[in-house]
Amino acid sequence: QVQLQESGPGLVKPSQMLSLTCTVSGGSITTSDYAWSWIRQPPGKGLEWMGAIGYDGKTYYRPSLKSRTSISRDTSKNQFSLQLDSVTPEDTAVYYCSRGVAYWGQGTQVTVSS
Q1: Beta-strand (E) ranges in 1-114?
Q2: pLDDT (tens digit per residue) in 8-45
């Protein structure tokens, strides 16, 4: 059973960088044909796919966020990470990591506020 767990600070100041890590257990992030995504849900809004990293390390980004987003991985720890630069209060959301639609982390609240 694949399990994902997000971790990172719950409060980030405006203009700073948001950094989150997703720790995966029960499956390898290098297993062929899978991609590992970051998704967020701002308060009162729908889910927004932010980007993904494939089993081969190739990255994919939402065009509107591409200039501020970086997704990387640490295969030795079976983790992948999200960095979102120059955050504003509009980046306040619950952030999820996932593998496809079947496996999701529980989500972590990130608030951008001074």
Answers
A1: 3-7, 11-12, 18-25, 35-41, 48-54, 59-61, 69-74, 79-84, 93-99, 103-104, 108-112
A2: 999 999 999 999 999 999 999 999 899 999 999 999 99
